[in-house]
Design brief:
The protein has 2 helices and 2 strands; from the N terminus they run ββαα. By secondary structure, it is mainly alpha-helical.
Length: 52
């Protein structure tokens, strides 16, 4: 996740590393749509709690 204040202040942009490089548990979690959304929300919450 990253920000680009010059492009769009306050917006969060997501970048997903290659999924095939995740460990088996991570790939399985990513394959489940509900878990995928949870992973994205967890990353968003961490980013908002610790802004740079």
């Amino acid at each position: 996740m990253f920000v680009s204040p010059n492009v769009h202040p306050g917006a969060l942009y997501y970048y997903f590393d290659p999924i095939d490089l995740l460990p088996p548990e991570g790939r399985a979690r990513w394959a489940d749509p509900t878990q995928r959304l949870a992973m994205i929300e967890e990353a968003r919450a961490r980013a908002l709690a610790h802004p740079h």
